Amino acid sequence: MSEDYRSMWENLGLDLGAHDALLEVLGKGYGDIYLAQKDRPEGMGYFDFVMSEVHGLRIKEIMDEKEAGKKVIGSFCVFVPEEIVRAVDATLVGLCTGADFATEEVEKLLPRNTCSLIKSAFGFKLGKVCPYLESADMIVGENTCDGKKKSYETLNNLVPNLYVMDIPQMKSAEGRALLRAEYLRFKEAVEQLTGITIDAARLKKGIEIVNNKRKAIYRLSGLRKADPAPISGLDALLANQVFFYDDPVRFTESANKICDEIEKRIDNNQGVFPKSTPRILLSGCPMAVPNWKLPWIIETSGAVIVGEESCVGERGTRNLTDESWDTVEELMEAIVDRYFKVDCAIFTPNPDRLEHIVEMAGTYKADGVIHYGLQFCQPYLMESMAVEKALEEKNIPTLRIDTDYSMEDVGQLKTRVEAFIELIK
Ligand code: BJ8
């Protein structure tokens, strides 16, 4: 960190010793995985900087905003509509985490066979190492998978400001009505939290900010159709991860800037991997910072990742909200329409996701798909069977991986991934 933020962390109630240890591991992992890559676009310097300051400068900015009377809302899911949060000038931050922490303490509160993502969020709370969680004025949980839904009952005892949002499980008229009712309830809750009433101009502005951010990251995705690949999958994943933490307007500018650079790279036939390197589409559970294990294994085994069918990827960013409406009611309907298209595996049945994976494999000219499921994640592990079948029908090779956040299976995963890459070559 370029400044001494210790008193800020202390005021937030962090355990400084544990936090130091976390930052050390994060810094080392980042150096080994990210900075070791060759020929990265210069624009990645911005994302390197954001990562180096993810618990420093960004938290300082958030604390300054709080001092100016603004609110911070933390979320674990892409179903929490950022447009509504921006409409009250509040900041939305992602709270999902991608590393094991305080596992022994966590397993006193949650069953061992809970997915790593949920355990990680609890570990960061119990270990007092997450400044985002500690600075949030409202933490939004959502009834998606059973693991998350039930774990919020326990989280409610650990944090004073949990708000739980119900989420439908079917794409029916009743399901849409539920989502609509829940978004209206959420709008009222953030209005109450901030004392700001959302009018059409505010909501339009919120939609515009979030649409611009999504357009920029989606533009980056589109550029990955090129061969040779102009950016590594690891770097593209990082941009998708920073999407959840950074100031949205600055993020949009930085993402567009790197896209400008990448367009030039494509014109010059410049890639990060040689032309015709095997191309992989990743599909499955979201990968939160610093969960880089599988992408790192893939890209150090002779392949390049050309897309992510994930909530930290295209599932979360591909659809925009229609900004053309004029009233709060109409704009809220547009928000509901946009989020109702998210094809998370908690929906049943969920044919849209299968279609989208096949479509992405074609768009990004993937030679194969690796489905990433976290152990004990029933929705994605169950759905991985159907995904494999849908891809097989199109003769697209598929590898299903179940893993967690530990590094114990790295050797075994590498062997499987290498064999898969050999097969698709
Ligand atoms: S919209 S994917 S962000 S719920 S990995 S906690 S599903 S047991 S994260 Fe998600 Fe929203 Fe869906 Fe996206 Fe449960 Fe599975 Fe764990 Fe998961």
Could you characterize the architecture of this molecule?
The protein is built from 19 helices and eight strands. The chain has helices at residues 6-11, 16-35, 44-52, 57-67, 82-87, 103-106, 116-126, 131-135, 146-155, 173-194, 200-223, 233-242, 248-267, 293-299, 314-317, 328-339, 351-363, 378-393, 410-424; strands at 72-75, 91-94, 138-143, 162-166, 279-284, 304-309, 368-374, 398-403. Strand 5, helix 14 and strand 6 form a beta-alpha-beta unit. 47% of the residues are buried. The chain binds Double cubane cluster. Double cubane cluster binds at residues 77-79, 115, 117-118, 144-145, 147-148, 285-286, 311, 342, 344, 346, 374, 377, 379-380. Residues 77-79, 115, 117-118, 144-145, 147-148, 285-286, 311, 342, 344, 346, 374, 377, 379-380 line the site of Double cubane cluster (BJ8).
Contiguous uncertain segments of 5+ residues: none
Q: Given the C-alpha coordinates, what overall shape results?
A: globular
Q: Beta-strand percentage?
A: 5-15%
Q: What is the H/E order?
A: HHHHEHEHHHEHEHHHHEHEHHHEHEH
Overall mean confidence score, pLDDT: 97
Bound molecules: Double cubane cluster
Q: Cα distance, first to last residue? A: 42 Å
**Biggest sheet layout:** 4 strands, parallel
Number of strands: 8
Class based on secondary structure composition and strand pairing: alpha/beta
Structure annotation, total helices: 19
The helix fraction, in percent, is: 40-55%
The largest sheet has its strands arranged as 2-1-3-4
